[in-house]
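REVIEWER CHECKLIST
Item 1: Sequence provided? yes
Item 2: Single chain? yes
Item 3: Sequence as submitted:
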Amino acid sequence: MVEERQLMVEERQMVVEERQIVVEERQMVVEERQIVLEERQLMVEEIDGNMETGVLMGQMVAAEQMVAGWVQVARDRWQGGGRELASDLNTMR
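Item 4: Structure as written out by the authors:
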């Protein structure tokens, strides 16, 4: 009887140890998943940063094009005005 009880106690202890191992394995899986989530979050933040950079670069290109357009208009007006002035002077002569 005592030996049987001792065996039962040992078997239960083994079951407890096996369950503890399962709990530890599951904890490791949880930690691995947490790491994956953190890596994904970093990727999302990097993508957001790249998108913001792209938007800013697009705005910068648009601003450069707008300024280039203003410069062209100013040149055209200056050149056109100069021609008109020269034409007016020639007419006066």
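Item 5: Key structural point noted by reviewer: The chain is about 100% helix and 0% strand.
Item 6: Recommendation: ____
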